[in-house]
Amino acid sequence: MLSFDEAQAVFAMCAEPVRETETVWLGLLTGRVLARDLVAVIDTPAADRSAMDGYAVRCEDCGEGAWLPLQQVVYAGTRPQPLLPGHAIRLYTGGVIPRGADAVVAQEDAAESYRGVTCARAPVAGQHIRRKGEDARRGDLLLPAGTLLQAGHIAALASQGLTEAPVCRLVEVAILTSGDEVAAHDEPRDVYQVHDVNGPMLESLVQSMGAVVSCHRHVQDDERALHDMLRELAADTDLVLVAGGASVGQRDLVAAALVSAGGELLCRGVNMKPGKPVTVGRLCGKPVVCLPGNPAAAYATFALLVTPLLRRLQGRAELFPPVGRVRAALAGARPHRGDVFWRVGEVGNLGGREGFVQVSAQQGAASVSALGQASGFVRVDPQFAGQLRNVPLPYYDFHRWLS
């Protein structure tokens, strides 16, 4: 059995990024992964521009009490005339700085009348001027390959006049639920059966990561059926997620079916709670992850172990989001040999101190009624069990780890 840190590394590196790329319009790039480095093709701004509404002047003309006749009014998109000595040109934000001007006087620092414009205070050379290329210079690296594209990145691409960009294709995931006790949502359910919680939950989690679910299947507790289904799914998708059958009970058959189908096991069991039975292997060169059947445990292992693997498949540069530190409002915890991950609420203020989280009352591996209110996990090392109050704990924020 691997430690959590060892398992996280094994999961993250058990597959290579997808190789296929496609070119996508800027408006549809959010959440996609840039396939290659992009360099700036032009200087931005392309010319010196005004950062304020005001007046383009020569500093030497702005002595105390001097009035400068207005030579021209320049709006953004208008070509300015060269500035004549002893004159001023009215500019608006984004307007090109006229040749000969060396400063912009903000309109609130100037007074205008029929005589022209006068400055309330002497300008400094270069003030309120956005210099050519100060945002990006032609040939500079604009965005590196592996960037998860968001609105700010798209703004940078648009500023270069680009309308599309090369991105890695979407990763396709197959979800396989297993177990005789799982009733499909269109089937009658008896007291000895449970609804399929893992299937819809995992589909939502996969989509939140910017991947797509290409198929969703269910099989009973039958090794041959699992064997055949695993081979079929591994042949057609980039990642297979199996929910249930991961433990070592008599009807936990996924590991055996994976091996009999020609696959290999890379990790079976992780010293963590919840999620100890989680297993990862390879079949047909594709990663196969078997998650615990209890939904809250499946949620935890997906967030902490599967998401780095998905980021790797997607070609992202960052596989492991930052892990913060918070203090947990819990007096104690029972000792455990491995790492324990507690679901917690939003980070907030407790007793006048910032950075505290309230540990959720429901921590059972099958408890999902309050799962939607959790903001993340705190990681409790065995040495801290029973002494959690005021101890800074690693915090895995769902906003970072599930996107």
At the first level of CATH, the class of the largest domain is Alpha Beta
- 3D shape: elongated
| Annotated CATH homologous superfamily of the largest domain | MoaB/Mog-like domain
Strand line-up in the sheet with most strands? 19-23-26-27-22-25-24
How many alpha or pi helices?
7
Q: Which structural category fits the helices and strands? A: alpha/beta
**In percent terms, what proportion of residues is strand?**
25-35%
End-to-end Cα distance, whole Å, is 28 Å
Shape-level CATH architecture of the largest domain:
3-Layer(aba) Sandwich
Q: Which sheet architecture does the biggest sheet show?
A: 7 strands, mixed
**Averaged pLDDT:** 88
Describe the structure.
The protein has 403 residues and is an alpha/beta fold. It folds into four domains: 4-20 and 170-314, MoaB/Mog-like domain (Molybdenum Cofactor Biosythetic Enzyme, Chain A, 3-Layer(aba) Sandwich); 21-44 and 134-168, Molybdopterin biosynthesis moea protein, domain 2, CATH 3.90.105.10; 49-130, Molybdopterin biosynthesis moeA protein, domain 3 (Beta Complex); 324-401, Beta-clip, CATH 2.40.340. It contains seven helices and 27 strands. The strands form eight sheets. A seven-stranded mixed sheet has the order 19-23-26-27-22-25-24. Helix 1 (4-12) crosses helix 6 (295-314), helix 3 (198-208) runs parallel beside helix 6 and helix 4 (223-236) packs across helix 5 (254-260). The mean pLDDT is 88.
